[in-house]
Write a structure and sequence with these properties.
Blueprint: H1 3-31, H2 42-54, H3 59-79, H4 85-102, H5 104-117, H6 127-130, H7 134-137, H8 140-155, E1 160-161, E2 172-174, E3 189-196, E4 199-200, H9 202-206, H10 209-216, E5 221-229, E6 233-238, E7 245-253, E8 260-264, E9 267-270, E10 276-279, E11 285-289, E12 295-303, H11 311-323, H12 325-336
Antiparallel strand pairs: 1-3, 2-6, 3-4, 3-5, 5-12, 6-11, 7-10, 7-12, 8-9, 8-11
Helix pairs in contact: 1-2, 1-3, 3-4, 3-5
Length: 337
Amino acid sequence: MTAIAIIDRGLVALAVLIALPTVLGDLYAVLALPKGKSGSTHVLARLFRFLDMQTAYRMTPASYLATDYLLVRLAWEVASSSMPLSWRLSIVAVIAATAIVLMYPLLAIYNAVGSLLWRNPPLDLDKQRYFPGSARLEDPKVFAALRREIEVVLAQDQAGPITDVYQNLTIIEARGDAPKTSGAGAVGWRSFFLRVADRDITANLARMPTLAAVLREMPEAYNVLFSILDPGHDIVPHRGYFKGILRYHLGVVVPSPGDATLTCGGQRYQWREGAGVLFDDMFVHSVENRCVEPRVVLYLDIRRRPLPLFGLVTNALFWLVTHHPYHRGVRARAAAR
């Protein structure tokens, strides 16, 4: 075996190891597409967390780049094989289409460069610097109105399973202490969507006039929803897919502070009612609700302020994500619920 062949095999083995969490996670999501399927990700979550921690919480950009390398390598092997030309062209076209639909090539480069340019900590970022609009949401009068409005929505059982909207979501886990039932609609993780991928859910906003008024002055809010996590349920370690956003959580209903927690990048945060936290979801994060009642947070994805010469690429990616068939489907399901 030549030295070049040895190096080539070594690179392929290294790429497989680095890409493993991303590939397994996406494969599992596809296999779990039946409506309502969630959980059963213990092994994947632990593997993902272990490999990610070994690279100082920077695995996702490397995973995407490694996956890109494997796709290119596979396409080259097919193109240079002895199969009939029609077969080679068809298989390479399928590989290319898969990469484009999953947005791996674009996200890989963007997230890798973004991780170098944006050097923020994982948790408790400076809200005044990164999201000054948070002060409006945390204003006591605005917060009190928001809470009253979402309490009405919850009383009317308007919040449904988040898996009705994100049908490939596989990160919910019920602990042994999860109650058999905790009221109508208690299914683990519920949601009430107000904005999905930069498009408002007008019928839901009509039920929350206070928040609707605030959001009209907040174009940087890309996704907006209320996240309701039932008692005895966790959201297992996972991470985001796009470095162009930061995530904001406002504690709305926290029955027992200290028992509802967010862990991001190895740092722990305890939600408090009326207080918000800003974090980078590209770091591994997880959620626990050890309260005896549901925990409710207002959840916003905030566009990062574009960096010089990087803004055009950022805007192009936001346009692609907004118009991607996946997010069109998410919006349709959120609006129809």
